[in-house]
Design goal:
Helices cover 29% and strands 38% of the residues. With 136 residues, it is α+β, with helices and mostly antiparallel strands. The chain starts with a helix and ends in an 8-residue tail after the last helix. The relative contact order is 0.18.
């Protein structure tokens, strides 16, 4: 296992333990994160995004399905699963179980993420919490 893969696995372990500060250690202070809102998010924006996500889906967990890398990049396919127990994007809690699938690419330097690109199935998540009808 490379240093970068070990850093990613430790970050996921911290998320799954409910330790946001521990999870955020994977990000450099000057990180740029793409795909979560106004482009790009800095570390303050990333913290705000994840605080809101943890409040909406407390106790959520991330499972990595495929992870591979080359050079300074790591790619991972993942699922975030949990229960909609807090308001999300203006949708009151439903208690519905959710599974958010996504793929992320992390550009690493010495075990720290300096840039990240992510794509997730937000439409699927909104359907699961009843904010949108399922596509026909």
């Amino acid at each position: 296992m490379t240093t970068n893969e070990a850093a990613l696995n430790e970050a996921i372990d911290r998320w799954n333990a409910g330790d946001l500060d521990g999870y955020l250690r994977i990000y450099a202070d000057d990180v740029q994160v793409h795909g979560f809102g106004p482009e790009p998010l800095d570390k303050v924006g990333v913290r705000g995004f994840y605080e809101a996500l943890m409040a909406s889906f407390p106790g959520s967990r991330i499972d990595l399905h495929d992870t591979f890398g080359s050079g300074d990049r790591i790619v991972s396919r993942f699922t975030l699963s949990g229960t909609h127990d807090g308001a999300f994007m203006g949708v009151p809690p439903t208690g519905n179980p959710v599974a958010l699938d996504g793929i992320t690419i992390l550009r690493m330097r010495d075990g720290v993420c300096v840039e990240r690109w992510s794509s997730t199935d937000m439409l699927g998540l909104l359907v699961q919490i009843g904010a949108m009808p399922a596509p026909a």
